Amino acid sequence: MRSENFLRQSQVFDNSTPVANTNLVFKTNGNDYKGALHSSGNQKSSISTTLRSNPSAGKRLSSDCMSSVRESFRCQGFSRRATKILMSSWRSGTQKQYQTYISRWFQYCDKCKIDSVSVSVKDVVEFLTEEFERGVGYSALNTARGALSSFLRLENVPAGSHPVVIRFMKGVFNLRPCKSKYTKTWDVQNVLTYLKSLSPVKHLSLKELTLKLVMLIALTNAARSQTVHLLSVNKLIKEKSQFVVQFDSLLKQSRPGFDYSVLLLKCYPPDRRLCVYTVMKEYLSRTKKVRPSTNKKLLISYIRPHGPVSKDTVSRWIRTVMIKSGIDVTVYGAHSVRSASTSKARDNNVPISVIMKRAGWTADSTFKKYYSLNIENDSMFENAVLQ
Q1: Backbone phi, then psi, for 162, in 5-degree steps?
Q2: Which of 4, 107, 354, 381 is deepest in the core (most CB within 10 A)?
Q3: By the 8 A CB rule, do 109 and 115 touch?
Q4: At 354, is the pLDDT very low, low, confident or very high (cuts 50, 70, 90)?
Q5: What DSSP letter does each residue of 184-253 carry, written as one string?
Q6: Could you tell me which residue ranges the Tyr recombinase domain spans (predicted)?
Q7: Around Cβ 349, how many Cβ atoms within 10 Å?
């Protein structure tokens, strides 16, 4: 969900310590920034000095937002090789979100005639206040805060860790609380009824077969669209009663100390109409002849020339099944499959530990806060979801 994504992406470094309530603010550790920029109300940072001596550097910072972070490391003397690794600590999704607020920061500084990298805590708080008055919520402001912390320091601490900024964010939370996108979720049974109607699989069109496979994978693994999209045929192992799929790319939930590199697609004997193993076998057989030799992704377009599909297409396929099942997609997005499947598993007495492992969570508070929802109309995980 949106709020979960913002909170996680605002965590600047792993293995960090919280500066305040971890449910309210992003995590950071001042020691992680020992080589970063120094800035206070009157003290100029080293990068600011560089910009004054090299005006073209400042122009580069304004034109390419994340380059401000890269330039800050370079100005501190880090080699290009080290800087490349440091920049890799932010994934592409986080960088895109950071770019938005770093760009707005430069625009704000230009408007107020402020040196964008040598600022006071007042400048940062006034910028966040302007964003707040634009209607930006707590989670988005938390992302802005993390973006500024990536290259600004106030009185020898990351900008977002300054006590005044922390106090400001508490005020934002009280005035505009961060709420979950959903307070309830849809009934999986509605989707299962529709999927059962798509039988037998041998008689389905490639479009119907694709839609059924995608939704069953998402349901039985509480999977994100990204996870389904990354499935690869050359990493797929067929066993007697299950397919084992290994990932060669990082997933959203991938992190140090947590292995989520394998996805299981298990046979479901109680009802072959809902058996993802059966559907997968048919899909692989059906697409073998039309699959481009250069495309190793599991999912291909059901329209000629059957090329690779994007993550957004996978999300659209999931929404299509939801629409055909009578789910209101103006309220629920493709990501809601995670809350729907995990909530049903909970209602069927699947242990929280099993749900967390399947969904890729390490803290039960994540499940309880964002995914353990009341359902509208009122082997373990798969059976509970498909019952």
Answers
A1: -65, 135
A2: 381
A3: yes
A4: low
A5: EE--HHHHHHHHHHS-SGGGS-HHHHHHHHHHHHHHHHT--HHHHHT-BGGGEEE-SSEEEEE-SS--TT
A6: 207-374
A7: 8
Amino acid at 251: L
Identify whether the C-beta of residue 317 lies closer than 8 Å to the C-beta of residue 324.
no
Q: Which two tokens stand for residue 118?
A: 């040598």
DSSP sequence for 293-357 = TT--BS-B-SSTT--B--HHHHHHHHHHHHHHTT--TTT--TTHHHHHHHHHHHHTT--HHHHHH
For residues 340 and 366, what is the distance between their CA atoms, to the nearest angstrom? 15
Structure tokens at 347: 């209602």
- For the stretch 290-334, pLDDT in tens is 988 888 889 999 999 999 899 999 999 999 999 999 999 999 999
Domain ranges of the chain: 2-175, 184-386
pTM for this prediction: 0.61
In the block, tokens 């900024």 appear at: 165
Q: Give me the phi and psi of 97, to 5 degrees please.
A: -70, -40
- Dihedrals φ, ψ of 241, to 5°? -130, 15
Q: What is the CATH topology of the domain spanning 184-386?
A: hpI Integrase; Chain A (1.10.443)
Q: Would you state the structure tokens that stand for residue 378, as one six-digit string?
A: 């009122």
The arithmetic mean of pLDDT across residues 362-375, rounded, is 51
User: Is residue 218 within 8 Å of residue 339, measured between CB atoms?
Assistant: no
Between CA 24 and CA 170 the distance in angstroms is 8
| pLDDT score at 12 | 35
Q: Which two tokens stand for residue 129?
A: 């206040």
Phi and psi, residue 54, nearest 5° = -140, 85
Edge to edge, the sheet with strand 262-266 lists 236-238, 242-246, 262-266
How far, in Å, are 27, 117, 188 from residue 194 at the CA level?
43, 56, 10
Residue type, 351: P
